[in-house]
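Hi all, long-time lurker, first post. I run a small reading group and we've been trying to get comfortable going from sequence to structure in the token notation. Rather than ask abstract questions, I figured I'd post a concrete chain and ask someone more experienced to write out its structure so we can walk through it together at our next meeting. Sequence below, copied exactly:
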Amino acid sequence: MREIASPAAPGSGEPNLAVTANGTVLSSWIEGTGEPHSLRFSILDGAAWSPPRTIAAGRGWFVNWADFPTLAALPDGTLFAHWLAKTAASPYAYGVHVTSSADRGTTWSPAVVPHRDGTRTEHGFVSMTPATDGAMGLVWLDGRKTASTPASDGHDSGEMALYYTTVARDGALGPETALDDRVCDCCQTDAVRADGATIVVYRDRSPEEVRDIGVVRLVDGRWSAPRLVAADGWQIHGCPVNGPAVAAAGRDAVVAWFTSAAETPRVKVAFSGDSGATFGSPIVVDDGRPLGRVDVAMLESGEALVAWLEQGDKGAASLRLRRVARDGSGGAAMRVAESTGARSSGFPRMVRAGARVVLAWRDASDPPRVRTAIVDAPAGSQRP
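-- Answer (accepted) --
Happy to help. Here is the structure in token form:
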């Protein structure tokens, strides 16, 4: 691993990474310990980040350790980004704002709001991936059905749903589609294009409060019914704030997730060879004390590289990576960086570009800041 100087200032947080069709890696993060906040980004040029640019800045943003902005690119290089802004005084009344850039981030379009229900409820946990019609596809958790009496935890009562729409280069919005009418309230979503399909993963929520990982697919213009990646049977009466991740290359896909079924914390992965139509048996990848907060990349070898936080002593945690093949082989985990199990450490992020993987995470310094590193990921069964 080679750490590279981060372009993010002290106090920065909510890191995310994206990779363009030509293999360019982009990093985004939020700066500002108080209002106003700014969403900034940088481009990885070789082994150094470009000077940071500002996507958007303003007051009244919803800035949260678990619900962070995203940055994504269409095949033609058009960039899309989103951030969150408050819509009412209620703690979880906020909405999604989406902007785009056709000039590598020099200028950005006026923002559009993809959800059109008009309720002052929670809308967030966005994932973006290119749609088949040349627009950007967006998935988010939508609280329009929760617009009733506030619950004791500060969220509204009712059920969170999973929604999808598209945003064209000119800001035109496609129709809103409900993908699942009952999902976990505040776990991250993820989405990826595989050969012939868009795969969306999220934490489902059954009437019995079993919150295992769900998947829906868009194939030939039609969304599938929700189903489970694996039946862990994790029954929990509250949101664990610990969503899944998905990656794909061709028809191969892999999902990583955290579960604590039977009160045994685990990080697992499951592989698919048919663009997410079916998944193999789950493989455990953690070292015995995982906190979750996973990400995953599909390597050129067909193996997966999984990132997660592993709990240490006295509140400490470490960012770890492990290669894993479909048969469960892959060797020991790699300890990448020291962190903390506190919410302030956020969610580590990871993308693959060619034969290298780029990581971003928030450290435990005072003040904390976003840090980045490159991990070589050659083909074969060697450790990263």
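A couple of things your group might point at:
The CA atoms of residues 17 and 27 lie 5 Å apart.
The first strand starts at residue 2 and ends at 4.
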